[in-house]
Amino acid sequence: MKTKCEVCDFKFEKEPGFFFGAMFVSYALAVGQMIISLVIFWQIIDFSPLKVFLIIALIALLLSTLNYKISRSIWVHLFYKKPLKSTINKLD
Questions:
Q1: Is 22 exposed, middle or buried, given 0-12, 13-18 or 19+ CB atoms closer than 10 A?
Q2: Helices (H), 8-79
Q3: First to last CA, the chain
Q4: Left if phi > 0, otherwise alpha if psi is -120 to 50, otherwise beta: which for 9?
Q5: Cα 92 to Cα 81: distance, rounded to the nearest angstrom
Q6: Is 14 in contact with 7 (CB distance < 8 Å)?
Q7: CB-neighbour burial class of residue 59 (10 A; exposed 0-12, middle 13-18, buried 19+)
Q8: pLDDT tens across 20-53, in order?
């Protein structure tokens, strides 16, 4: 991940440990995906509990890197402030 945005010079890493909060966002994303998978594969498709467990574990494993990137992006956007219009005009 780059340290600063090339367009607006936004510093991504505010302080050491800034992305510690992204861990909680990632956890929430993973739990949401697991609950959706549980409902789909157990209630709708009617798989056995063991198959559902294995599918959920596989989905969690496959989506972990995607969740990592998305959670960091969500966490940064929670603290991002839009630049002033005068700053945007200077960039053009």
A1: buried
A2: 20-38, 49-79
A3: 24
A4: left
A5: 19
A6: no
A7: middle
A8: 888 999 999 999 999 999 999 999 998 999 999 9
pLDDT at 88: 52
The token pair that represents 7 in the structure block: 């367009």
Supply the angle between the helices 49-79 and 20-38 in degrees, to the nearest 10: 140
Could you tell me the CA-to-CA distances from 59 to 5, 41, 50, 87 in Å, in that order?
32, 12, 14, 43
Integer CA distances (angstroms), 53 to 6, 64, 91, in order: 43, 16, 51
Tokens of 78: 């929670």
Could you tell me the pTM of the whole model? 0.68
- Amino acid identity of 28? A
Tokens found for residue 23: 């861990």
Task: Provide the token pair at 71.
Answer: 């959670």
